């Protein structure tokens, strides 16, 4: 039986007071396995916290904006979509090797005009499948910023994967757009 103790982190190091947050039965080695000790030894294994997860170098999702030129029209939908893939990272906690699997699960779009959409599980898609769009009401220069939300699970010493509490967020580089106000006017038939 292992007892799980946690303390708030300050500057990356735990600072008291520690509180017991759970118990778990875990056998790190099966008797008779190559490399297993003669008797099963109890190991105190570290627990990955949300703060640990957030500190990992998770990749930012790639944001797509259409029209790709970044020149959009007022009162017309601007299409946005995210491209993000699951990732597996190797790290260590308190000297123990840890494998972390991070999966993008939600996206937040800041359109630079005071409108924020999300978090939503919808990643959007390129044209013509317009699922995540925004309509600018005024002409001007804006930046669109994507934040990708990851959920994770981790394995210490090759043991079972356990869920990381909470999520980690990674913000992509902003995408500049210019919204132009259009006007309608009759024109001569260009085919004549």
UniProtKB/TrEMBL annotation:
<dbReference type="InterPro" id="IPR013783">
    <property type="entry name" value="Ig-like_fold"/>
</dbReference>
<protein>
    <submittedName>
        <fullName>PKD domain-containing protein</fullName>
    </submittedName>
</protein>
<dbReference type="InterPro" id="IPR000601">
    <property type="entry name" value="PKD_dom"/>
</dbReference>
<feature type="domain" description="PKD">
    <location>
        <begin position="103"/>
        <end position="147"/>
    </location>
</feature>
<dbReference type="GO" id="GO:0005975">
    <property type="term" value="P:carbohydrate metabolic process"/>
</dbReference>
<dbReference type="Pfam" id="PF00801">
    <property type="entry name" value="PKD"/>
</dbReference>
<dbReference type="InterPro" id="IPR035986">
    <property type="entry name" value="PKD_dom_sf"/>
</dbReference>
């Amino acid at each position: 039986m292992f007892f799980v103790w946690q303390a708030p982190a300050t500057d990356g190091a735990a600072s008291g007071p520690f509180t017991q947050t759970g118990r778990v039965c875990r056998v790190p080695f099966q008797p008779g396995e190559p490399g297993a000790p003669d008797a099963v030894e109890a190991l105190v294994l570290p627990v990955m916290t949300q703060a640990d997860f957030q500190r990992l170098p998770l990749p930012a999702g790639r944001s797509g904006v259409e029209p790709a030129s970044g020149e959009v029209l007022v009162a017309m939908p601007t299409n946005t979509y995210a491209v993000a893939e699951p990732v597996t990272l190797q790290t260590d906690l308190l000297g123990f090797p840890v494998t972390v699997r991070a999966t993008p699960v939600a996206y937040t779009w800041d359109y630079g005009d005071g409108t924020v959409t999300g978090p939503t599980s919808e990643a959007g898609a390129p044209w013509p499948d317009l699922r995540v769009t925004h309509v600018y009401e005024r002409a001007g220069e804006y930046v669109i910023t994507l934040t990708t939300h990851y959920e994770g699970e981790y394995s210490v010493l090759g043991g079972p994967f356990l869920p990381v509490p909470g999520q980690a967020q990674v913000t992509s580089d902003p995408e500049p757009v210019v919204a132009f106000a259009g006007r309608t006017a009759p024109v001569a038939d260009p085919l004549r």
